[in-house]
Design goal:
heterotrimer; A alpha+beta (331); B alpha+beta (153); C alpha+beta (763); B: 153 residues; alpha+beta; Ubiquitin-like (UB roll); DNA polymerase, domain 1; 5-stranded mixed beta sheet; 33% helix; C: 763 residues; Aldehyde Oxidoreductase, domain 3; Aldehyde Oxidoreductase, domain 4; 3 domains; 7-stranded mixed beta sheet; 6-stranded mixed beta sheet; 19 helices; 23% strand; globular; oxidoreductase (chain A); FAD binding (chain A)
């Protein structure tokens, strides 16, 4: 690890002030991703600004029935929060399928949103990676890419966003609140992460001097009947091959409301708008679910080893919706 | 930098700590507490699990500076004098210890689980301890140990 | 009264559960320096230039070794030829790069972080050449496979295949596996003023064998190898990954000699993938021929694994096929394909692990062709004697393993139709396989001392890699002496103790146990001799040979147990602080007297001489039967193992608790092998893709179901006086095949390439 300066901020104003004068600085939250990447030599900030003491640890009910989540709320605390479990069960479930108990105890909401890809070639400083080193090439495309993206990829990058939490946030129309010395702004989560295109190194809409301060969830009666389902290579503690966050409302056998997002398939949590469009007003049947999944995955592109994820994603969508239909949402 | 931290109830100070050091390094190399194990340095195995302000974390991913003025409790701090913690006792008795390298982290994780959930179900134990990899035991006796400790607490 | 056979808790459990057991990395050292490896980032080519000047100038840096300035080191003698190395090419000797991860620089600094930082400052330019990747190139036969010729033939398998009523011809694949013990390997080397070297090592490789390796590598004559001490008290797992001498073991001693200070090298998890061997990927072609009743007439098992320019270790996959079933015509062949990767090595259940996946899957396929129950097929081909060597088994309880396992599992409830069994939406499948393992007896010496206070200490230079040797050997000695196990301390892991071979090939209990027993009996006899000559002893005048141990440190007359003496009293009257004896086992009698446990040891020649008398009359194998239930999600192709029953014939069970640990752990290895473990390689670059624990998945707590383990616990008196065989590897064998067979039963889909997951089941 290279040497760097270590600063600690006690309030948001100090933190954003500090980063505004230190362009090479990084905020340090839970550390689960940044400390790892620094040790691997992928990240090498000149300055690290420890923000773990900022007062951004609340989960509050909003007047409209939504919920505001402080950026430093721990993943484990958020998963266990009464409001979240009651109103947005898919989010609680998504959090609990992420990483391990220890890491959930450390990881923050803001840090989870800003997680970087787990593509092995991004991590391996000796491999070619356009995300790490623009123009270097992509060793994943001809390499071991079983876990890589099938939607929204480019010839420059096929990495996935690894978060479970964000998949649920995408389905829930969450909004990310950010702050800098220039003020505050709000970015819908679905617009927060960017597809790689020709610039895979640009991963989010966040400016270098901005700090995530909160995530807001709008009220969603629909979300009370929701589930998160994750397909992975072992029973626990593994990144998703494919995951699905879904909420479903059915009246008289017809889909009257649906929220659907996919994880493990793209460089961003993938809100399945096309599938939602197909489903809304359609009969709540396995056939509709399959048609919706087919529609969403129609543009998917498989690589040498991840072709199976296209079918897997479709089946995961169908299975999750079927489960919502027959068993309802999660407890 | 200087780091002041309470470890196992004692205030400890380390000088000339390099910013890039982890809490695990601080404990093992500077504070003479090698009970927490260094095994993957990526948060993937749980062998370095310690309590940080009463919450178990992977100390390999905690930057030393983050623990300033906070409380750390390691496997060395679970027993009270010569009296083992019931979890430690149960690990020994149930045969949950084999090569033992994952054991300190597992003991801390199991200790925390029983603090939060005094009578965990088997699926709860399995999921709660999934972040602690063991390559020897096949986990069976670890489950036995947690059940035994739960019964005794 | 006897301790052997009872579930004595692990004696080191307390130290380990309190974090006070000192593993190699935990040992405090004065004046310690820290080293790191810098590894090649290409798989093949040359180092065009290497510039370490920035590193040398970095804070705290003491030494940077590259091929430009490293001392000349000799090629090491291969383990297969009586040496201690798998990789025979030493590090830092030329500009060639033979595999990604080969060491190109060795950096020593005051702190580990300084050394790491300095390593990042070394700039290396390579002239790259395209590496050989995968098992695609020309295959060639290895010199030897586990000491056997690469090809085995009995009868005429090709002809018998042509004549067979039913044939199965399939190709099976297994990926690269890494041992991944939780503890990373650590070496601390320090030289004293007299030129003596002490190395603290996390060494499954056996301290004596490693001492010889250090002598060879450092140019120390064998007769002076006694100046080298290797210490290894606690190990965080081995599984083959800490066996043998690798370049990373040697470099700290080289640097420590140059610096005049102790040097510690602790590998990172990533470096563990390229610094201590691995299990080769395999491609195995299986051809079976049988009659309509399922009697095997022919088996051809052709196995290909990875070859290397730096050493040779063929994965001995076909060897299990040569002995397991009564089949008159069998051909087994082993071939290598050269790749630009490091040298493979033994990995838990070497050969039998991947070999049984192919053989036992193929048998399941044959059973399907014949519409025969898979268990019945195995029973119809049961080998009453060893068909490979045409001699009797020392013991074989496999038939009982089958029947007991089937009963416990409920095998009879299996509906033979694939896809017919369900639990809710889950597809349920039953599968089974046979397990066999060729555990070994190695030459071992032990010294037992009974002390004036009646306690005993046993010393033997084996290492306890987590198996429970410290505990079990105390039990063995306690029984032989007639004292409580708590009164016996077993000390290991030091070249100052009598010679032992590395604890590999499930050899620990069966090699060390008899040596410990023999030494303990010898001590007891010596004390008895003292007593029978002592007028004050109740044993006076008795025949020392008939004096019996009656427990509690008491020795009694054979004809009258009421007349007894005690170790404490005999030694006190004789004015002795202790009585000690040293005995060997597994070696020819004349070596018992000439061999010194401290002298350097010619491992290879010794082995050949020593094991010959044991290789004659009987064949010895551990046997078992594995039964597995899986659940497969029909939507997503997710496989979960829901139940395992393993029944094993391992001879006598010395400690049911530690043996059970080994069995459940071994089955878990099989689960990992079947469902998740795999090291992947970039197909063009020849580099491992994810050398860490998120890329290489080990089973977690949540992946392992309730496991029912049963031991026949039937002593095998022909194998050794304790009647014990081996348990370390057997429980791994067959599990992957049983799972693949169960997946086929659940889904109708046969997967012939490990691991099995959604990609395989949906594709």
């Amino acid at each position: 690890m290279r040497t760097f300066a270590y600063l600690s901020a006690d309030d948001v104003a100090t933190a954003v002030q500090a980063i505004s004068t230190e362009p090479g600085a990084k905020f340090l939250g839970g550390g689960t991703n940044l400390v790892d990447l620094m040790r691997e030599g992928v990240e090498h900030p000149d300055t690290v600004i420890d923000i773990t003491r900022l007062p951004l640890t609340g989960v509050e009910e909003l007047p409209d029935g939504g919920v505001r989540i402080g950026a430093l709320v721990r993943n484990s605390d958020l998963a266990g929060d009464r409001l979240i479990r009651g109103r947005y069960p898919m989010l609680s479930q998504a959090l609990l399928t992420g990483a391990s108990a220890q890491l959930r105890n450390m990881a923050t909401v803001g840090g989870n949103v800003l997680q970087r890809t787990r593509c092995a070639y991004f991590y391996d400083g000796t491999a070619a990676c356009n995300k790490r080193e623009p123009g270097a090439g992509c060793d994943a495309i001809g390499g071991f890419n079983r876990n890589h993206a099938i939607l929204g990829t480019s010839e420059d990058c096929i990495a996935t966003h690894p978060s479970d939490m964000c998949v649920a946030l995408a389905a829930l129309d969450a909004v990310v609140e950010v702050e800098s010395v220039r003020g505050k702004r709000r970015i819908p989560l679905v617009d927060f992460h960017l597809l790689p295109g020709g610039t895979p190194q640009v991963e989010t809409a966040l400016e270098a001097d901005e700090l995530i301060t909160a995530v807001e969830l709008p009220p969603s009666p629909l979300a009370a009947t929701s589930r998160y389902r994750k397909v992975r290579d072992r029973a626990s503690y593994a990144f998703a091959l494919v995951s699905v966050a879904a909420a479903l409302e059915v009246a008289d056998g017809t889909v009257t409301g649906v929220r659907l997002a996919l994880g493990g398939v793209a460089a961003k949590p993938w809100r399945a708008y096309e599938a939602e469009r197909v489903l809304l007003g359609a009969p709540a049947t396995e056939e509709s679910f399959r048609l919706a999944a087919e529609a969403e995955l129609a543009p998917a592109v498989g690589r040498s080893q991840n072709e199976f994820k296209i079918e897997l994603a479709k089946r995961a969508v169908v299975a999750t919706l079927r489960q919502l239909l027959t068993e309802g949402g999660a407890a | 930098m200087r780091v002041t931290v309470t470890v196992n109830g004692e205030q400890r100070r380390a000088d000339d700590v390099w910013e890039g050091e982890s809490l695990l390094f601080l404990l093992r190399e500077r504070l003479g507490l090698p009970g927490s194990k260094n095994a993957c340095e990526q948060g993937e195995c749980g062998s370095c699990t310690v309590y940080l302000d009463d919450v178990p974390v992977c100390s390999c991913l905690v930057a030393a500076g983050q623990v300033q003025d906070r409380e750390v409790r390691t496997v060395e701090g679970l027993a009270e004098g010569d009296r083992l913690d019931p979890v430690q006792e149960a690990f020994v008795e149930a045969g949950a210890v084999q090569c033992g390298f994952c054991t300190p982290g597992l003991v801390v994780a199991a200790h925390d689980l029983l603090d939060r959930v005094p009578r965990p179900s088997d699926p709860e134990i399995r999921e709660a301890l999934a972040g602690n990899l063991c390559r020897c035991t096949g986990y069976e006796k670890i489950l036995d140990a947690v059940r035994l400790a739960a019964a005794r607490r | 009264m006897t301790s052997v056979g009872t579930p004595v808790p692990r004696v080191d459990g307390l130290l380990k559960a309190t974090g006070t057991a000192r593993y190699t990395a935990d040992i405090p050292f004065e004046d310690l320096t820290h080293a790191v490896l810098l590894q090649a980032t290409i798989a093949r080519g040359r180092i065009a230039s290497i510039d370490a000047s920035a590193a040398e100038a970095a804070p705290g840096v003491l030494l940077v070794l590259t091929h430009l300035n490293a001392p000349r080191l000799p090629r090491m003698r291969a383990f297969a030829k009586g040496g201690s190395a798998q990789q025979t090419v030493p590090a830092l000797q030329d500009d060639r790069v033979r595999f990604a991860g080969e060491t190109v620089a060795f950096v020593v600094a005051e702190s580990q972080e300084q050394a790491r930082y300095a390593a990042m400052l070394i700039s290396v330019e390579y002239d790259e050449e395209p590496p050989a990747v995968g098992l695609h190139g020309d295959a060639y036969p290895p010199a030897k496979v586990n000491g056997q010729p690469p090809d085995y033939r009995r009868g005429d398998a090709e002809r018998a295949l042509a004549d067979a009523a039913v044939t199965v011809e399939r190709t099976y694949r297994t990926p690269v596996h890494h041992h991944n013990p939780i503890e990373p390997p650590v070496t601390i080397a320090s030289w004293d003023d007299d030129g003596g070297l002490t190395v603290h090592e996390a060494a499954q490789g056996g301290v004596h064998m490693m001492r010889l390796g250090f002598a060879e590598a450092l140019g120390i004559p064998r007769r002076k190898a006694g100046s080298i001490r290797v210490v290894s008290k606690f190990l965080g797992g081995g599984f083959g990954g800490k066996g043998f001498m690798w370049p990373r073991n040697i470099l700290p001693a080289v640097a420590a000699r140059l610096l005049g200070r102790p040097v510690k090298l602790e590998l990172t998890r990533a470096q563990m993938y390229t610094s201590g061997g691995y299990r080769s990927e395999t491609v195995q072609r299986l051809r079976l021929g049988a009659d309509r009743d399922g009697r095997l007439g022919s088996i051809v098992h052709e196995s290909t694994s990875t070859g290397s320019d730096m050493g040779e270790f063929p994965e001995p996959c076909a060897q299990i096929t040569q002995m397991l079933y009564a089949c008159p015509n069998v051909t087994g062949t082993h071939r290598l394909v050269r790749q630009n990767v490091g040298v493979p090595t033994f990995t838990r259940a070497p050969g039998e692990g991947p070999g049984s996946f192919a053989l036992e899957s193929a048998l399941d396929e044959l059973a399907g062709e014949l519409s025969l129950d898979p268990l019945e097929l195995r029973l119809r081909n049961y080998a009453e004697t060893d068909p490979e060597h045409d001699r009797p088994w020392s013991s074989k309880g496999l038939r009982e393993c089958y029947s007991e396992g089937a009963e416990r599992f409920g095998w009879s409830a299996r509906n033979p139709e694939p896809g017919s069994m369900r639990d809710g939406r889950w597809l349920v499948g039953y599968g089974m396989a046979t397990a066999a393992y060729s555990s070994h007896t190695w030459p071992t010496f032990a010294r037992v001392r009974i002390r004036a206070d009646g306690t005993a200490v046993v010393r033997c230079a084996t290492t306890d890699i987590g198996t429970g040797t410290y505990t079990v050997m105390a039990q063995v000695a306690a029984d032989a002496l007639g004292v409580r196990p708590g009164d016996v301390t077993f000390e290991a892991g030091d070249t100052r103790y009598p010679f032992a071979f590395p604890p590999v090939s499930s050899s620990g209990a069966r090699s060390i146990g008899p040596a410990v027993r023999a030494a303990a009996l010898a001590v007891r006899t010596r004390v008895a001799r003292l007593a029978v000559k002592d007028r004050e002893s109740p044993l006076f005048g008795a025949d020392a040979a008939t004096v019996r141990a009656i427990g509690g440190g008491r020795l009694a007359r054979a004809d009258d147990p009421e007349r007894y003496d005690t170790f404490v009293d005999v030694l006190e009257r004789a004015g002795l602080g202790h009585v000690e004896e040293r005995k060997g086992y597994g070696v020819m009698p004349f070596l018992h007297s000439t061999a010194s446990g401290i002298a350097p040891w010619p491992v290879g020649p010794l082995l050949r001489v020593a094991t010959r008398p044991f290789a004659g009359r009987y064949s010895t194998y551990d046997f078992g039967a594995q039964f597995v239930e899986v659940r497969v999600d029909p939507d997503l192709g997710v496989v979960r193992v829901s139940r395992v029953v393993g029944v094993y014939d391992i001879g006598r069970v010395l400690n049911p608790r530690t043996a059970r640990n080994q069995a459940v752990g071994g089955i878990t290895w099989g689960i990992g092998m079947a469902l998740m473990e795999r090291t992947t390689t970039h197909p063009r670059l020849g580099k491992y893709t994810s050398p860490n624990l998120s890329g290489y998945l080990l089973p977690t707590n949540a992946d392992v179901p309730d496991i029912d383990v049963h031991f026949l616990d039937r002593p095998d008196p022909l194998v050794n006086p304790l009647g014990v065989k081996g348990v370390g590897e057997l429980p791994v064998v067959g599990v992957a095949a049983a799972i693949a067979n169960a997946v086929h039963h659940a889904t109708g889909k046969r997967v012939r390439s490990l691991p099995i997951g959604p990609a395989e089941l949906l594709g």
